[in-house]
Amino acid sequence: AAGLGIGALPLYMAADAVRQGRLVPLLRQYHFAQESAIYLVYLPNRTLPSRVRVLIDFLVAHFGRTPSWEAGW
Question: For site-directed labelling of 19, which of 1, 9, 33, 72 has its Cα 20 to 30 A away?
């Protein structure tokens, strides 16, 4: 269902849905390491404290790399 959230999916799982317009790529500048699964869950109607934003930025910088199956996407 449209508008229910953001997910990080491997390209092989999402490519057809993106091509068909059922999914929209967001946050393309962020990449996740193959070995890692990190989930950050917080209430969307609250302002993020700066310490949480710093943590998110750190995790993205530390784990952000393009998985081999998404290289060149």
Answer: 33
